[in-house]
Amino acid sequence: MVVDTTRVAELDIALHRVSDGEVEQIVAALVAVPISPKDVGIGSFQLRRIGAWDVAFTNTRDGGVHVVTVGAVEPAMQRDRLEQRLKQIALIATFRGATGL
Prior knowledge:
alpha+beta; 5-stranded mixed sheet
């Protein structure tokens, strides 16, 4: 399994000053349980609270490798904001897919 981050997630980590230990906790949680019945699905993203953070991520396969891509990290108390952001990202992805842009 590979855990990757988008540039948005990397900016979130820097902006919110997520510590290295917390990043390691997020990665360990996603590796241990990549798909949980407690995850909230929004478009192709899953949303999970890990420690003090709401983490948006996708699960895909690249060849035979399971890839978890972290798309956003927000403080847990701002879950509505993250859900709204994910809906916007899903809408943009749908538009790009439909138009080929």
